[in-house]
Amino acid sequence: MQFLFQLKNWLERKNLWEFVAYVFFGQLATLANIVIHFLCMGIFHLHYMAATIISWFLANVFSFVTNKAWVFRTQSPNRKAYWTQFLRFMLFRLFALGIDMASMFMLREWLRLGNGVAKVITQILVGIANYFFSKFLIFRQFPQK
Predict the structure, then answer these.
(1) How far apart are CA 60 and CA 68, in angstroms?
(2) Residues whose CB is less than 8 angstroms from the CB of residue 58 and which lie 6 or more positions away in sequence, other chains included
(3) Is there a domain that residue 114 lies in?
(4) CA dihedral 28, 29, 32, 37 (to 10 degrees)
(5) For residue 97, how many C-alpha atoms fall within 13 Å in the half-sphere facing its CB?
């Protein structure tokens, strides 16, 4: 356990902790997204687009909590600021959902890639976009009053 604390301290000194935490929790959210996607298709026999929407929603609930608390470590000074941040998060994630849906459609229907390959490629594109949205547009520190 001591090694993990030392590693975390070293990453913080090198200004890498935020990125490493984002990748770690992003991978967990991506894994949740993919697992839920295939469960929706395999167990509930949903169309891949419906499975994409459901997996997107549940993965983003997880992402908001982890990004706010452990990645960007932002505190909201009041409820209005919290809900503004949450709304901004969801709006940018909706934009990313558009990227997700369009990518799945193009990769599946136009390029005829398999669902698994298309989903992995799509998640990489969405992950990159979401990092920039989160870092620069969503999880900014609130000004101290």
Answers:
(1) 12
(2) 32, 33, 36
(3) yes
(4) -140
(5) 19
For residue range 12-45, list pLDDT tens digits in order. 888 889 889 999 998 999 899 999 999 999 999 9
The reply to whether 76 falls in a domain is yes
Query: What's the number of domains the chain is made of?
Result: 1
Distance CA 112, CA 106 (A): 8
Residue 10 lies in a domain: no
The pLDDT tens digits for 52-95 are 889 988 999 899 999 999 999 888 889 999 899 999 999 999 99
Tokens matching residue 61: 């609930």
Torsion of CA 53, 47, 32, 133, to 10 degrees: -30
